[in-house]
Write a structure and sequence with these properties.
By secondary structure, the protein is of the alpha/beta class. The chain has 2 domains: about 1-115, Rossmann fold (3-Layer(aba) Sandwich), CATH 3.40.50.1390; about 155-200. It is built from 7 helices and 5 strands, in the order E-E-H-E-H-E-E-H-H-H-H-H. The protein has helices at about 45-55, 70-85, 110-140, 155-160, 160-170, 175-185, 185-200; strands spanning about 1-10, 25-30, 60, 90, 95. A 5-stranded mixed sheet has the order 2-1-3-4-5, with helices on one face. Helix 2 runs antiparallel to helix 3 and helix 5 (about 160-170) runs antiparallel to helix 6. The longest helix is centred in the middle third of the chain and has 32 residues, at about 110-140. The protein is globular and about 60 Å long. The termini are far apart.
Length: about 200
């Protein structure tokens, strides 16, 4: 089975940019989760893992290495696991395959390590630019967070897709930090959700 795996960082992103790929696949999976979340902990990542372990997949296609993750160690472990399972990993943006014609690519390990490190560095740069941008905004008199006149009812808040994801994670007993990574949200959002659930129950 030839599978395409796509990932976008937030629930607001639709994944429309992947529609440019006109190739034929047996299955296309889309995860809406932060790249900092381990591949095997993602909803579609878990689904794909089950199929790999069952020997149903022969090729996994991704747009770029960063779709597998933004953590070098996790990406390398995922790629090594796929290699052990004999799966050909194809990276579209650089035209690289791990096992072309079912033979090991001698430069695969070197390039995948370098590219994964670059994507992790890119993520750190994005975080730094975002933090600096917020600080400058506040220094100029800006205010972060929800507008003061914006009032959202508890029921509407609990119906949100992100909130529903947090509730499921809370029921599984995950920590606040783990939930923040999975749902791509702040500590405040998780704590607010937890308090509302406790109040309802």
């Amino acid at each position: 089975m030839r599978v395409k795996y796509n990932r976008v960082s937030t629930l607001q992103q639709s994944g429309d940019r992947f529609t440019m790929d006109k190739e034929n696949y047996d299955l296309v999976l889309l995860d809406k989760v932060s790249g900092s979340v381990s591949f095997k902990e993602r909803p579609k990542g878990k689904e794909l893992t089950t199929m790999v372990e069952a020997g149903k997949i022969s090729e996994l296609v991704v747009e770029e290495f960063s779709r597998l993750g933004r953590n070098t160690g996790d990406v390398i472990r995922t790629l090594e696991w796929l290699e052990e399972k004999g799966i050909n990993v194809s990276v579209r943006n650089i035209g690289l395959q791990s096992r072309p014609n079912n033979k090991k690519n001698p430069i695969w390990k070197m390039i995948s390590s370098v590219m994964s490190s670059l994507y992790e560095m890119e993520l750190e740069n994005i975080k730094e630019r975002t933090t600096v941008g917020r600080q400058v905004f506040v220094q100029k008199g800006g205010r972060l967070g929800r507008p003061t006149k914006s009032i959202e009812s508890d029921s509407n808040f609990l119906k949100k897709e992100t909130t529903q994801q947090i509730i499921k994670a809370l029921k599984k007993g995950l920590t606040i930090r783990e939930i923040c990574k999975i749902a791509d949200c702040s500590n405040k959002t998780v704590i607010k959700t937890k308090k509302l659930i406790e109040r309802v129950n």
